[in-house]
Amino acid sequence: MKLVHISDIHINADPVAGSDSVAEFTACLAHVEKRHGNADAIIISGDLTHHGQRHSYVKLAEMLAASPLKPLLMLGNHDHRDTFREIFPQAETDENGYVQYVRDIAGHRLVFLDTNLVANHSGRLGPRRQAWLSARLDEAARDKLPVLLFMHHNPVTIGVLATDIIGLVQKKEFAAILRSHRDTVRHVFFGHCHMSLSGSIEGVPFSAPRSTSHPGWPEFEGRLAYGHGPIEPSYNVALIDKTTVVVHTIDYRLDDRIEWEPLTGGDAGAVTVPPGM
Ligand SMILES: [Fe+2]
Ligand SMILES: [Fe+2]
Predict the structure, then answer these.
(1) CA-CA to 126 of 20 to 30 Å: which in 31, 36, 196, 262?
(2) What is the DSSP letter of 23?
(3) CA 47 to centroid of ligand 2, rounded, Å
(4) 98 CA from centroid of ligand 1 (Å)
């Protein structure tokens, strides 16, 4: 199974932190199409637009309509739920109107959370959204389907103040749900931090790609600052089989600058390996 995980595309008419988010997402989509058009699913984990404006969702809808790729969309703190749903009326919601849904793909259940609270930058997973998540994980366990869990906000403190003050508020509650479904959830995918991250929470591994729009630089001294500059945008590619999950960081802007050298000798050549080696 191959998943493409894109995040924080921040579509906007004007530059965002000095970057043209439309041009960056266009380049990202083209690269995914060229290199990973065979992915089983492509996910954009929120911050679809920078200001949640109608014209930005219209622009995104136009870009996706012109692409053969059909990414699954999620909301982030920069999004506006009602405006998103107006432009993407096919978007699935739960019984409370949150853009939360599941998809069964290649023997896994992908679960998509909505951690948006309109006009707030921190993430929310209040009692109703927690109940929805617990119910979906119970169902997956019953159906014997491993879960790949997607959300926008970081559910862990990452050590970078500028991001941590706007992370998921209900970290303890989320961790408790994960703890009781550790055998069901194989991996947590999130965005929001604009940094390439990996680690684990309650023994469940997680990963996050940078932003395509304005990738961030981790700042560990406790300054309330967000670093931008010559940092490569990225998306992630996850290769998943029954026992392993491998997550690659794809710095797609570098693709045409890579120099390839053919492998010769060693295991790449016709070398006879002695028995027992
Ligand atoms: Fe973002
Ligand atoms: Fe965000």
Answers:
(1) 196
(2) H
(3) 5
(4) 19
- pTM attached to this predicted model: 0.95
Point out the ligand nearest to the CA of residue 121: 2
Using DSSP, state whether 82 is helix, strand or coil.
helix
Residue bearing tokens 């637009």 = 49
Look-up of token digits 């014997």: 144
Distance 189 CA to ligand 1 centre (A): 14
Enclosing H/E stretch for 249? strand 245-250
Alpha helices (H) in the chain, listed in sequence order: 21-36, 54-65, 81-87, 127-142, 161-164, 171-180
Upper half-sphere CA count for residue 21 (Cβ side, 13 Å): 24
Ligand 2 center from residue 8 Cα (angstroms): 7
Tokens found for residue 87? 């432009």
Nearest ligand (C-alpha, residue 190): 2
CA 265 to chain centre: 39
Residue of 18, 15, 23 whose CA lies nearest to 253: 23
